[in-house]
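Re: the 132-residue chain
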Amino acid sequence: MNAGPAPGERERRPGGALEAEVLAVLQSSPQALTPGEVGRRLGEGLAYTTVVTVLSRMFDKGLLTRGKRGRAYAYAPVADGHGLTARRMRQELEADSDHGAVLARFVADLSDRDEGLLRQLLGEVPEAPEGT
């Protein structure tokens, strides 16, 4: 029987959970935050180095921007939650050489409601020029 972590140990988060928490903290802030500020807002007693590592990895993935503030970097998200989701969708599309097949499968799997919304959105977009 597993009673959880031993005294003094922390329970491990599922993969990506800490990134999601960090992103939520950054998105709720009107300004870029340093690792120390992020750590304090998370309020979980995380090591400063852990927060720096997570922020650096998220920056390397293109999820965050950063700029110097004093001796540290201050981080901000590149987009809101919807923008980040759209970015991931675009990256997946670009990873496949047959964009037409991917888009066709994507549309075929949409609910009637989502397909209608997509059609409405596409009606507002000007037609793409020939050859694109």
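Helices lie at 17-27, 35-42, 48-60, 81-94, 99-108, 112-123.
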